[in-house]
């Protein structure tokens, strides 16, 4: 009986699969062509869930790129993941150009490392977690401590340097008010490059190499960007630059000169010094208090024509006249001014202070030990540029998408990451740099910059697909395959075919605009009548009909401009 049973099991079975005659069924093709019938792209009909009317974020949701899971937390859908993967590939390309090796660090770090580096108490946006033993862990917003500890334990000689390591991974921040979609979230994707050299000169040379790689990367996006001198803040070090996309939705102010190449962020911007004058009874004084409430801080600036003649001014008006970033830099390192205190609270605390510091604007001559060479007044549009004689300053709102820091020995010294130096038997701390790119922020920023009422307009290099071929429901599949293969060629065009059943040609065109394919090719009436297809590029304002022989060259020419 065994043989007949075996033979029966070998009998072919008839399996009925959905066919195109079933109008509302999803048809799964098995050829090598990219087809939207095989791809999950749930577009339309959804609005953002965070209570904000952010049009570009709404377009990313309606276009099927992402969905919000919780406040400040998002799921990437297949279209969004394709954009992210292409951006990561672009980053990989330019990191490899400077000899950087890719790794993946754990998202979990310890409170102990952050205390050792001195950053634990200074960062109020850390996401803290405890295990069952009560051990203190953090979900990393950045990895300077971990990478320093890792390299410090494995690299012991200058002969192993320079070393350039980077990762692209998830970061976490206890954001108080998540907003603007991917631009200000609790969980986000970042690229972090960490560089290690044996000397300051070598580290500065590495820093310039990284800056060149960043410029090349942002140039490939073919979007205008600004590179601004920046303050290193809590990261440490004294040299850093920010990379910005100019956008009214940005939260940063970037100042630039209309005559020279001077660009600086709000913390570092300066204006050309005016003629020195003596500080007399006509100068204005704003009195603040230190964070520890022990020090009264008198800030002396020249009088202003748009404020009363009183020498003592109310603290409520300080932001209209005083550059508080400059004040913070002018103060001794162990004193930090409380910039958010209310005037009523300030008045009750000032009598209890135990010491007083006087800061004078650089335009006021003073012989006191607390005279500063810093301009303490606010920068205003059309103020004179500090780097040239003819230019004036203007300000733009911008979205920060990248930052480079020269750290020096800020982390290697407290974490004891040292190497044997070439000139002596003694060990010396590693000289470091850290360089970030906000992957999620770039996606959100590009959607903000390159969108209209119809949808997003992706740059070619990070578009989910470079081109889409759209057909009418009645199109002959043999002709569709012919046009697809002629355009796809040897694979130089990242092409997808919209062959979804039950969708009209008009619906597909609107959907293509919403998603933002750089080039749209339509197989419609022109093909039936003249053997021509319509080529559309919304960003360049192009709509023309071309024959099959010219199609590939026409599409590549358009993509080259995007």
From TrEMBL:
Taxonomic superkingdom: Eukaryota
SUPFAM superfamilies registered for this protein in UniProt: Class II aaRS ABD-related, Class II aaRS and biotin synthetases
One of the Pfam families matching this protein, by short name: HGTP_anticodon
Start and end residues of each Aminoacyl-transfer RNA synthetases class-II family profile domain: 67-464
One cellular component (GO) term of this entry: mitochondrion
Catalytic activity: tRNA(Pro) + L-proline + ATP = L-prolyl-tRNA(Pro) + AMP + diphosphate
EC number in record: 6.1.1.15
Keywords, in A-Z order: Aminoacyl-tRNA synthetase, ATP-binding, Ligase, Nucleotide-binding, Protein biosynthesis
InterPro entries: aa-tRNA-synt_IIb, aa-tRNA-synth_II, aa-tRNA-synth_II/BPL/LPL, Anticodon-bd, Anticodon-bd_dom_sf, Pro-tRNA-ligase_IIa, Pro-tRNA_synthetase, ProRS_anticodon_short
MF annotations from Gene Ontology: ATP binding; proline-tRNA ligase activity
Enzyme class per UniProt: ligase
Gene3D superfamilies: Anticodon-binding domain, Bira Bifunctional Protein, Domain 2
A GO biological-process term: prolyl-tRNA aminoacylation
Family, similarity comment: Belongs to the class-II aminoacyl-tRNA synthetase family.
Name this protein carries in UniProt: proline--tRNA ligase
Native organism: Decorospora gaudefroyi
């Amino acid at each position: 009986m065994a043989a007949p049973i075996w033979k029966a099991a070998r009998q072919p079975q008839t399996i009925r699969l959905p066919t195109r005659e079933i109008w509302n069924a999803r048809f799964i093709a098995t050829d090598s062509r990219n087809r939207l019938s095989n791809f999950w792209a749930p577009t339309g009909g959804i609005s953002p869930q965070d209570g904000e009317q952010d049009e570009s974020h709404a377009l990313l949701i309606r276009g099927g790129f992402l969905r919000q899971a919780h406040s400040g937390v998002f799921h990437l859908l297949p279209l969004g993941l394709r954009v992210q993967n292409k951006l990561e590939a672009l980053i990989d390309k330019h990191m490899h150009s400077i000899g950087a090796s890719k790794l993946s660090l754990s998202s979990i770090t310890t409170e102990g490392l952050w205390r050792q580096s001195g950053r634990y108490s200074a960062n109020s946006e850390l996401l803290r977690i405890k295990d069952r033993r009560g051990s203190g862990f953090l979900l990393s917003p950045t990895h300077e401590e971990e990478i320093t500890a890792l390299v410090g334990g494995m690299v012991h000689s200058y002969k192993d340097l320079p070393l350039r390591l980077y990762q692209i991974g998830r970061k976490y921040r206890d954001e108080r008010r998540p907003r603007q979609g991917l631009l200000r979230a609790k969980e986000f994707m970042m690229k972090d490059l960490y560089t290690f050299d044996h000397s300051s000169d070598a580290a500065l040379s590495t820093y310039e190499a990284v800056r060149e790689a960043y410029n090349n990367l942002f140039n490939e996006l073919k979007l205008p960007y600004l590179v601004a001198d920046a303050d290193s803040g809590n990261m440490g070090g004294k040299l850093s630059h920010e990379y910005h996309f100019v956008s009214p939705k940005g939260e940063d102010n970037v100042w630039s000169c209309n005559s020279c190449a001077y660009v600086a962020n709000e913390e570092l911007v300066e204006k050309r010094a005016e003629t020195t004058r003596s500080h007399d009874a006509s100068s204005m004084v704003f009195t603040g208090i230190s964070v520890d409430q022990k020090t009264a801080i008198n800030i002396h600036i020249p009088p202003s024509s748009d404020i009363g003649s009183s020498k003592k001014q109310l603290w409520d008006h300080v932001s209209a006249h005083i550059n508080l970033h400059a004040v913070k830099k002018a103060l001794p390192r162990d004193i930090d001014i409380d910039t958010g205190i209310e005037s009523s609270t300030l008045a009750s605390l000032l009598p209890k202070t135990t010491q007083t510091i006087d800061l004078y604007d650089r335009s006021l001559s003073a012989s006191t030990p607390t005279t500063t060479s810093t301009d303490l007044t606010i920068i205003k549009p059309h103020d004179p540029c500090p780097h040239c004689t003819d230019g004036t300053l203007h300000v733009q709102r911008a979205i920060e998408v990248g930052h480079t820091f020269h750290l020096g020995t800020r982390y290697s010294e407290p974490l004891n990451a040292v190497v044997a130096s070439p000139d002596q038997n003694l060990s010396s701390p590693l000289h470091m740099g850290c360089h970030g790119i906000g992957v999620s922020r770039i996606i959100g920023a590009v959607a903000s910059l390159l969108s209209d009422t119809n949808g997003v307009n992706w740059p070619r290099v990070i578009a989910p697909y470079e081109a889409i071929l759209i057909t009418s429901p009645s199109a002959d599949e043999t002709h569709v395959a012919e046009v697809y293969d002629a355009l796809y060629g040897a694979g130089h065009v990242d092409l997808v075919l919209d062959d979804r059943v039950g969708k009209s040609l008009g619906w597909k065109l609107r959907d293509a605009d919403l998603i933002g394919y750089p080039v749209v090719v339509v197989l419609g009436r022109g093909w039936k009548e003249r053997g021509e297809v319509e080529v559309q590029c919304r960003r360049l304002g192009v709509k023309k009909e071309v024959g099959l022989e010219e199609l590939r060259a026409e599409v590549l020419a358009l993509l080259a401009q995007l």
